[in-house]
Amino acid sequence: MTSALYLEHYLDSLDNLPIELQRNFTLMRDLDARAQGLMKDLDKLADEYLRNVKTLSADKKKEQLNHIQSLFNKAKEYGDDKVQLAIQTYELVDKHIRRLDSDLARFEAEIQDKALNTNRVQEDSAVSKKGRKKLKEKEKRKKGSAGASSEDESKIARKKQKKGGSVTSTAASGAVGSGAQADTSALGHPADVLDMPVDPNEPTYCLCHQVSYGEMIGCDNPDCPIEWFHFACVGLTTKPKGKWYCPKCTQDRKKK
């Protein structure tokens, strides 16, 4: 029930309350007036009895005392009726107050529940948005990483390798290893390799400007523009001891 509709029903229930209160107060005022009148009569009868008690006979005394007692009982009944009406009037008003307090507590609980549900929906929405944002960022990272080629991984691995170490690279896997021996028969003669189609995205090395294959050796000159060379292209069959420099860097060193 909406607050406006509830207020309308509650005000409708209060329509008869003023009339009932007015009726009870009128009855209480009437009972009070009757009781006050009886008390005045009792005072007069009591005074008259006390003045004439010595001259009255026993039967007369008893008659007047009974009359006084009956009037007193009647006044007491009026007082009791007045108290009962006052209690009824109080309970009538208190009933509406209790109903209002109960309804207010219920409305407050409903408002709190709605606020909690609203907060929960907002939190769920925020979590969902955050999750979608993370998913989008993850997809972007995947797309970015998918664009990186295996040649970059090989180059990074070679740069991390100690200078002068041989590198084994097979056409099947493109893997890079430090100090590893490659089975060149699996690849065939270097001339056969040169006849193979070259991926334009794969980096080239050596004096022959070809991709990596077989065993390769790195120049120990950190400023060498080529860095890596095929064994066959530089006339090597095994890894030399100590430092090794490519032909170009060797000539540059001699000039110095």
Q: How many individual β-strands?
A: 3
Contiguous low-pLDDT stretches (5 residues minimum) are: 145-153, 159-189
Q: Percent of residues in beta strands? A: under 5%
**Can you list the strand order of the major beta sheet?**
1-2-3
Q: Helix coverage percent of residues?
A: 55-70%
Distance between the termini: 98 Å
Count of all domains: 2
Order of helices and strands, N to C? Answer: HHHHEHHEEH
Report the radius of gyration as a whole number of Å.
57 Å
Q: What is this entry, summarized?
A:
The protein is mainly α and 256 residues long. It is built from 7 helices and 3 strands; from the N terminus they run ααααβααββα. GO terms for molecular function: zinc ion binding.
Describe what this molecule looks like in 3D.
The chain has a 3-stranded antiparallel beta sheet with strand order 1-2-3, with no helix packed on it. About 15% of the residues have low confidence. The protein folds into 2 domains: about 140 residues; about 110 residues, Herpes Virus-1, CATH 3.30.40. It starts with a helix and ends with a helix. By secondary structure, the chain is mainly α. It is built from 7 helices and 3 strands, in the order ααααβααββα. About 65% of the residues lie in helices and about 5% in strands. It is found in: Nucleus.
